[in-house]
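Progress against Task 2.4 (sequence-to-structure conversion) is shown through the following example record, which the project officer requested during the mid-term review.
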Amino acid sequence: MSAARQAQAGPDPRAVVDWYRAHARDLPWRHSGTSAYAVLVSEVMSQQTPVSRVVPAWQEWMRRWPDATALAAAQRAEVLLVWGRLGYPRRALRLVEAARAVVERHGGELPADRDQLLALPGVGDYTAGAVLAFAYGRRALTLDTNVRRVLARVVGGQALPA
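Structure tokens generated for the chain above:
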């Protein structure tokens, strides 16, 4: 492909994959075999919170409540204590509500269906897509605010508002 045609076609998507392989952070919830519940917890914790604070909190959370059934039975005070410095404690309470719904509606296993995930308390489009993609290996759209801003600059030349 000529340089002019390449420029017209836009960036090569393989470059993003290559960059990721070279620079991806080693996050515990990205390891193969990580449960859908563990991915859900990581995604909710990561909302508006630096990953450096999420990793130790996620590890402690998973030690205490390794699955939705364990979290569904957790005491509110203990959940909020472990949530600690992550901020926005309502997210922790929504996770408990989601865990209870998973136990009641799905036998303790996070569903692999987008609509069923979206029906869980505190789960929106990005989180549902992340669970489907990262836990179940499905092709799912996962556009967070940062990715949307980059795409807006590449495609339209301007940033979208936060």
